[in-house]
């Protein structure tokens, strides 16, 4: 089926803006969108070069809608996810609500669909990128993954980006930053991330990896750093047997989805190196010194362009192909 009309909740956020552009550009048959966002009345978003009025989520009407997409920024009325399910829509949820149910598939680009469900939890960028890397290993070989994640302020949406920009400008001009809704200064600072955010990521990645064969234990720690875009994730991966890192490096170098560092002109992956690139960047891929069945690496990826938006577009293309 074609998705002729799509409802987007959280349409005014950073991901919402990118998603609307991607929906317009992709060959999905989307003719129009309904846009919703908290405090969105009076706002407009652009779709196919035309302004679309934004409405409050509690006014949502699913008549004539084929699919509903729920983004994190600018959406909090989670009862609407159940309402969309009851209306028989294809539901793509980025908020972790469906993922916590346990009976809903977690999707990232490259995952094969199982069954004819119309409900999908969309994996976050870190989980998607780590899973893409570990899928290059023999199926069922991963036993446990530990992640230390430096998240950019854009995981807090447009407000995070604008707050960091304003605070940086004021501090560089010898002025104290104004108080913000985050409570603590973002510029030139490192903040811990809430436990529920880390737990959601652990659940998502564990689900993605376990679906590839065997239960996988995932533990993560997360911090917010004064970077606008792009996450940096340091992984320690424990496997059932020793991993042939030479073969893994060859597979990564031959796959256009990845860039393996060092490159000719760049020593190691970092958020700065993501400019003009949509690859998943891998560096410091080495064997663990204490355990021959473990290895370490750093994964850097664009949390907006190469995160939920790409997963959503990839999933919709598959659903059209299999006629769900």
Number of strands: 15
Helix content: 25-40%
Spatially, the strands of the biggest sheet line up as 3-4-2-1-5-6-8-7
Report how far apart the termini are: 6 Å
Question: What coarse outline follows from CA principal-axis ratios?
Answer: globular
Question: What is the typical, i.e. mean, pLDDT?
Answer: 91
Q: Order of helices and strands, N to C?
A: EHEEEEHEEEHEHEHEEHEEEH
Taking Cα atoms only, what radius of gyration do you get, to the nearest Å?
Answer: 20 Å
Please give the largest β-sheet: 8 strands, mixed
Strand content: 25-35%
Q: List low-confidence stretches.
A: none
Helix-and-strand structural type: alpha/beta
So how many helices?
7
Attribute tags:
324 residues, eight-stranded mixed beta sheet, 15 strands
Account of the 3D structure:
- This protein has 7 helices and 15 strands.
- With 324 residues, it is α/β, with parallel strands linked by helices.
- The protein has an 8-stranded mixed beta sheet with strand order 3-4-2-1-5-6-8-7, sandwiched between helices.
- Helix 1 crosses helix 7 (304-321), helix 3 (125-134) packs parallel to helix 5 (195-210) and helix 3 crosses helix 7 (304-321).
- The mean pLDDT is 91.
What order do the helices and strands come in, and which of them pair?
Layout: E1 5-9, H1 14-25, E2 32-36, E3 44-47, E4 50-55, E5 67-70, H2 79-86, E6 90-93, E7 105-107, E8 119-122, H3 125-134, E9 142-151, H4 157-172, E10 191-192, H5 195-210, E11 217-224, E12 231-239, H6 245-254, E13 258-260, E14 280-287, E15 294-301, H7 304-321
Parallel strand pairs: 1-2, 1-5, 2-4, 5-6, 6-8, 7-8, 9-11, 13-14
Antiparallel strand pairs: 3-4, 9-12, 10-11, 12-15, 14-15
């Amino acid at each position: 089926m074609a998705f002729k009309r799509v409802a987007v909740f959280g349409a005014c956020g950073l991901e919402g803006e990118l998603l609307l552009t991607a929906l317009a550009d992709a060959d999905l048959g989307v003719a129009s969108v309904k846009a919703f966002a908290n405090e969105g009345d009076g706002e407009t978003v652009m779709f196919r070069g035309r302004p679309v009025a934004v409405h409050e989520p509690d006014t949502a009407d699913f008549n004539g809608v084929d699919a509903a997409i729920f983004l994190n920024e600018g959406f909090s009325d989670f009862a609407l996810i159940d309402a969309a399910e009851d209306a028989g829509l294809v539901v793509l949820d980025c908020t972790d609500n469906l993922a916590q149910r346990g009976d809903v598939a977690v999707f990232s680009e490259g995952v094969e669909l199982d069954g004819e469900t119309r409900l999908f939890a969309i994996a976050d960028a870190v989980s998607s990128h780590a899973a893409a890397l570990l899928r290059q290993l023999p199926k069922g070989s991963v036993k446990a993954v530990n992640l230390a994640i430096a998240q950019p302020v854009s995981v807090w949406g447009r407000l995070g980006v604008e707050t960091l920009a304003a605070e940086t400008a004021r501090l560089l001009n010898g002025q104290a930053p104004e108080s913000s809704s985050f409570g603590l200064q973002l510029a030139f600072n490192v903040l811990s991330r809430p436990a529920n955010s880390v737990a959601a990521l652990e659940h998502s990645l564990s689900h993605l990896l376990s679906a590839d064969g065997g239960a996988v234990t995932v533990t993560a720690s997360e911090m917010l750093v004064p970077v606008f875009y792009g996450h940096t994730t340091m992984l320690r991966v424990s496997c059932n047997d020793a991993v042939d890192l030479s073969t893994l490096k060859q597979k990564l170098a031959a796959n256009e989805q990845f860039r393996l560092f060092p490159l000719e002109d760049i020593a190691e992956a970092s958020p700065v190196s993501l400019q003009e690139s949509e690859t998943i960047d891998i560096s410091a891929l080495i064997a663990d010194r204490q355990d021959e069945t473990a290895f370490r690496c750093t994964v850097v990826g664009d949390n907006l362009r190469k995160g939920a938006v790409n997963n959503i577009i990839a999933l919709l293309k598959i659903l059209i192909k299999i006629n769900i």
